[in-house]
Specification:
CATH topology: Protein Transport Mog1p, Chain A
Distance between the termini: 50 Å
Helix content: 25-40%
Number of domains: 1
CATH class: Alpha Beta
Structural class: alpha+beta
Radius of gyration: 17 Å
Oligomer: single chain
CATH architecture: 3-Layer(aba) Sandwich
CATH superfamily: Mog1/PsbP, alpha/beta/alpha sandwich
Amino acid sequence: MNRIVIFLLTIFFFNSASGYGQTEFKRYTNQSYNFSFDIPSRWTIKYSKEQDGLICVPTTKVEKEIYEDCFEGIVFRMDFFRLDLDSALAAQGVYTKEGNYYYTSDRERDSVKTENIKGKNWIGIYHNNVCGISCKNNGFHAVGGQCEFIYFSNGKTTICINTNGRAFDNEILKRLINSFRFD
């Protein structure tokens, strides 16, 4: 029980501490799919054979320790579709569309409404679902995670960024969405 409390306090402290001050950002550019967006300078995006795709991982000791135990060392994954948004979401098999909105489900609710988002040359959706967290070192497992999904589409290509149980802090989420663009 004490390990669970310590784990939750560590996550709370890290989330609180990362929200103070100004986060430094750098530009990530993907030349294969012609898009770019900003990420914190303390993260890097790389190919993972194990994950079979591009992942974002932390580069600082503190974040590596937090993400490694319960989030597989991953800040987020990226998925790519050579499809428009509607076709990409239909291919996922977990979205339904009613009017102009998509709905999905999470571990607590059957119908989670997504938020429509848009930028200069793209449209997309965002949602934050409750998901499970499994920690390697202490066996902790609970429906306590926040899995975020952000889809960006220029009508021909759709990019999905999804977290692994730990939500972005608000500053990072806003910067990522507001800086995204297809080149």
